[in-house]
Design goal:
Blueprint (H helix, E strand, L loop, with lengths): L2 H12 L8 H9 L15 E2 L4 E3 L8 E9 L2 E11 L9 H18 L8 E5 L11 E2 L13 E8 L11 H21 L7 E9 L22 H5 L18 E3 L14 E10 L4 E13 L2 H14 L1 H11 L18 E3 L4 E9 L3 H4 L7 E2 L48 H17 L3 E6 L5 E8 L2 E7 L5 H17 L8 E6 L5 H14 L3 E7 L4 E2 L4
Parallel strand pairs: 8-10, 17-18, 18-19
Antiparallel strand pairs: 1-2, 2-3, 3-4, 4-7, 5-6, 5-7, 8-14, 9-12, 10-11, 11-12, 11-13, 15-16, 16-17, 19-20
Helix pairs in contact: 1-4, 3-4
Length: 545
């Protein structure tokens, strides 16, 4: 029997069942939809005959009723049951966050119904590039070690026969199991929100001083002089890699914030954190950025991440960066994992301000150590931000007297965000691959403009060209500020129009203020410039703003 014929017959048989027939209606109620998107178990949008596999209509981001042809010990079988997909797609760019609470609530269901699924099997598929099927396990709680990027976890049964040998008499067996598993589906989709990690409030935390945007260490200058602190003794702090988003594991960046050290009561909690820092030379404090949805991790998770950093060579790279800026790396490799990592977050949730904002907020100025603070009110800055532009001319003789002396200055780069090494190349190369998969060979990297400059990516579209400039600062405003002038020059230098559209690319999630800014630029100056977020790890490209 051909795959599409199997799907068609399963759709017909589903309508004769006790509870499975109500799946479209139940889904609509759970999702608060006006009506089901489809009244069939499997729709044309959730059936993929070339692979071949299918999941229930609308089930991409749910625990899904699933059938597929797969291979076990070199022979073809036909699986059927429930699956958890941890692979990203355009419709589901963040499967770990979406599926983890559903897996947790499934485990809770198993605890409440021991032995009820004992006749079924459990297996999973290890991460790409090798899609290796695991052995069959007895039904058990799904371990955390399986909740990794690109895994597929399945529970159910299979017909030990090739697809083309499946007969009509085999199909009721599949439908009976689906009908039986409806109680599991309803429980998971009704209760997964109770397993979402709760945001436990806004916090403020101090970072060690850094002039490299916390992408890499900046050296002992400006660090604390208190000999009781790690940064005073060694010339660096473990927060100095907070912004190095080129290092991600399973969709998360793992980092360290001193204020969360040795706080077991915080493990598993989610915080939005405002960051400030102290310039140890000028004795001034600055607001420098924020992160949303930062999860405090346990020492066990931190130790696992430390092992992965060693295996990937990142650990050794960090130690070399400590030495390169003249800090003391003595003891670096002997620190336990919790001293290197204690929080994790998504790359899009981190934001550093384009400029350090000096603060005189008494809550911060009166805090001398790395204490976890509760944010009770907006932070006061010396120069207020987010207020209308106002101009007042100077009155009086405040100008400096004229002189014939030649004015000279000593330049010192102001502290602020810097671009993330290696991330630019990852985004550029993965975006080229993404476009080629979508449109065919129509993209070129590092294209010569003819003026001694190069465009990061150029894509041909209907005999016209789109220029893409990639910036990887942890500040969307700075990405736009730096890219805009380059794109205008690349496209229009010497009075030409090389591109019909200009796109700024970064990993940062856009906010409403930036959307308004981009729209205002287009309306005011009639320049076809847009912003798009691109997440290289799962090839997610946002719409144009």
């Amino acid at each position: 029997m051909e795959f599409l014929t199997i799907i068609d017959r399963l759709n017909q048989l589903a309508k004769t069942t006790r509870t499975l027939k109500d799946l479209p209606k139940i889904r609509a109620e759970l999702k608060k939809l006006q009506k089901p998107g489809s009244y069939s178990l499997f729709s044309v949008h959730s059936t993929f005959p070339d692979d071949p596999y299918a999941y229930h209509s609308g089930g991409r981001s749910e625990i899904q009723f699933n059938v597929a042809v797969e291979y076990l010990n070199g022979r073809e079988i036909f699986r059927y049951g429930l699956g958890f997909s941890l692979s990203a797609s355009r419709s589901e760019p963040d499967p770990i966050t979406t599926m983890t609470p559903r897996i947790k609530v499934f485990n809770a269901w198993l605890q409440a119904h021991p032995g009820e699924l004992a006749d079924l099997k459990l297996w999973h598929y290890k991460e790409k590039p090798v899609r290796a099927r695991s052995q069959d396990f007895p039904i058990m709680e799904i371990p955390d070690s399986w909740i990794v990027w690109d895994n597929f976890i399945f529970l159910g049964d299979y017909l030990d026969t090739p697809e083309n040998e499946i007969e009509e008499a085999d199909l009721p067996r599949i439908i009976r199991l689906f009908d039986r598993l409806m109680s599991v589906y309803v429980f998971v989709e009704s209760n997964f929100k109770n397993f979402l990690p709760a945001n436990d409030g806004d916090r403020m935390a101090r970072l060690c001083w850094n002039t490299n945007g916390w992408v890499r260490p900046s050296g002992p200058d400006g660090k604390s002089t208190n000999e009781a602190t790690h940064e005073a003794r060694f010339g660096y702090g473990h927060e100095e890699w907070l912004g190095d988003l080129s290092k991600t594991i399973e969709g998360y960046h793992y980092a360290f914030v001193e204020a969360f050290r040795n706080l077991p009561g915080e493990y598993g909690k989610i915080h939005s954190i405002e960051f400030y820092t102290l310039d140890g030379i000028r004795k001034k404090r600055f607001m420098v950025g924020r992160v949303a949805n930062a999860e405090v991790i346990s020492p066990d998770v931190a130790d696992r991440i430390t092992r992965e950093y060693r295996e990937k060579g990142w650990y050794q790279e960090m130690e070399a960066e400590v030495k390169a800026v003249g800090a003391n790396n003595s003891g670096f490799s002997h620190w336990q994992g919790v001293d290197l990592f204690n929080i994790r977050f998504k790359a899009a949730d981190l934001y550093f301000y384009p400029d350090y904002l000096e603060t005189n907020d008494p809550v911060i100025t009166e805090t001398q150590r790395y204490t976890l603070l509760h944010k009770r009110a907006p932070v006061q800055t010396v120069i207020p931000v987010n207020r209308p532009f106002a101009f007042t001319p100077e009155i009086g003789d405040n100008d400096e007297p004229e002189t014939d002396e030649i004015e000279t200055t000593t330049y010192e780069r102001a502290p602020g965000p810097v671009e993330i090494p290696f991330l630019h190349k990852k985004i550029r190369d993965t975006l080229k691959q993404y476009f080629n998969e979508l449109y065919g060979p129509c993209v070129r990297r590092e294209t010569d403009t003819g003026q001694g400059t190069r465009v990061d990516l150029v894509r041909e579209e209907n005999s016209r060209y789109i220029f893409y400039e990639i910036k990887v600062y942890n500040s969307i405003r700075l990405c736009i500020r730096e890219a805009l002038g380059q794109l205008l020059e690349y496209s229009h230098w010497s009075g030409v129009n090389n591109a019909h559209e200009l796109i700024i690319i970064s990993h940062n999630l856009i906010d409403d203020e930036t959307k308004q800014y981009m729209e205002h630029l287009r309306k005011t100056y009639n320049v076809p410039v847009h912003y798009q977020q691109f997440l290289w790890e799962n090839k997610f490209l946002s719409e144009k703003y």
